[in-house]
Amino acid sequence: MDIDYNKMSKKELIEYIINLISQRAVSYEDRMKLAFLDEAPFTIWACAKNRKIKLWEGKCETVYDRKKEQVLGKDFVDEFVAQYEKEDAIEDCETIITTGQHMHNLAEDKDCFGHGIKTLYTHCFRVFDVETSEPLQAEMGVKINVEDELKRFERIKERGKILDNANKEKDTLTALCDKLLDVLNKKSRDGNLNLKDKREISSLKSKIEEQKNNLQRVFSQLLIDTKNCETAGNCQIKYEESAKSFRNLQSNVKNIANQIDNLLNTKMKNKQKRFRVALSFPGEYRKIIKGIANKLTTHFPKDEILYDEFHSAEFARPNLDTHLQKLYHDESDLIVVCLCSKYNVKEWCGLEWRAIRDLMNQRNNESIMFLRTDYGDVDGIFGTIDGYITVTNGNIDVVTTDIIKRHNML
């Protein structure tokens, strides 16, 4: 009706405005809530403890074909609940209002003609009347096709189980990759690594990162494929397809892990040897070799260099000949031999040379390095096929650097 505000007293106008505010939301948030309420596909209604309907909103009129004025004050059990469900509905209403318990249900409610309408999935809960604070049973429901929803629920359930399993597999394999990367990162900080090992470590790290990327790609594709599946069976098929990729990735990571083990075991064997460099030379060239030995101590610990003056106490013993042969043959990474005319005729050089020749016969040539101080003959060495570095008092620094480089190549 039309209101003539000019004829209203100040008190009447204030009361009228207060009444308007109480009836309709005025804030943005409240107006948005009303917009949601108007557009939501749910039935939204509430009843008192006596089951009389007090609220009829949302899509109630569309679903039940009853206007608000036709249902307000009516008993919802008498109006909409099937005969065989009435006792349960009454009990549920009492429980919800009394305890505040929430309840879910699949309801076959009746329309205005008493016919069963399509199934509703409902959620019932307690609210309090904003004017009287009376507890009410509220219900929100949406129409569903039971067969379609059951299929969808089964698909969701199956997809959840599949993705949970796949995610565990992904996390386990990712954790293994991260552990391997951590091992390689720690190894890469080893100052004794040679260039070959550094390159191999870098290559292995790249391979692991590639497997991690492939793993994430397979899992992401599984998310997409199962999301588009219509049935639980189709989800399982997609999972079986991705499982093949997971198995291949697991095999790849296992192979990489084996390569890392081989690399670490090889370096461990090298580390288990007592000496990094062993020097074999005749006494005539002690001055040069001593200079090399002292320079090597700037890169290796002194006790890891097989040079007689560094181990004088140990070498003051019986049967030194066999002891030295064992040290040269079994306990040295790299043996540096000073070839010269005197080498063949020196007794101690001859003992050391026997151990060195045995290594050469075993094709362990990478552990032997030749220096030359003159061009005298040495048994078993051929100038046309065996390589060497000429050493003098003037190039000790350069030769020592080359020895270190050679050790790094082992």
Major sheet details: 5 strands, antiparallel
Low-confidence stretches: none
Report how far the terminal alpha carbons are from each other.
101 Å
Average residue pLDDT: 85
How would you describe the shape?
A: rod-shaped
| CATH architecture term of the largest domain | 3-Layer(aba) Sandwich
In DSSP terms (H or I, runs of 4 or more residues), the helix count works out at 14
Structural Rg: 45 Å
Total discrete domains: 3
Number of E strands: 10
String of helices and strands? HHEEHHHHEEEHHHEHEHHEHEEH
- And the CATH topology of the largest domain? Rossmann fold
Structure notes:
The radius of gyration is 45 Å and the shape is rod-shaped. 55% of the residues lie in helices and 14% in strands. It starts with 9 loop residues before the first helix and ends with a helix. It has 14 helices and ten strands. The protein is of the alpha/beta class. The protein has helices spanning 10-23, 28-39, 60-64, 68-71, 76-80, 86-99, 146-188, 195-227, 232-272, 286-296, 312-315, 320-330, 347-361, 396-408; strands at residues 43-47, 53-58, 103-107, 120-128, 135-143, 275-280, 305-306, 332-339, 368-372, 389-390. The protein folds into three domains: 40-144, Beta-Lactamase (2-Layer Sandwich); 149-272, Butyryl-CoA Dehydrogenase, subunit A, domain 3; 275-408, Rossmann fold. The protein has a five-stranded antiparallel β-sheet with strand order 2-1-5-4-3. A five-stranded parallel β-sheet has the order 7-6-8-9-10, sandwiched between helices. α7 runs parallel beside α9 (232-272) and α12 packs parallel to α13 (347-361). The longest helix is centred in the middle third of the chain and has 43 residues, at 146-188.
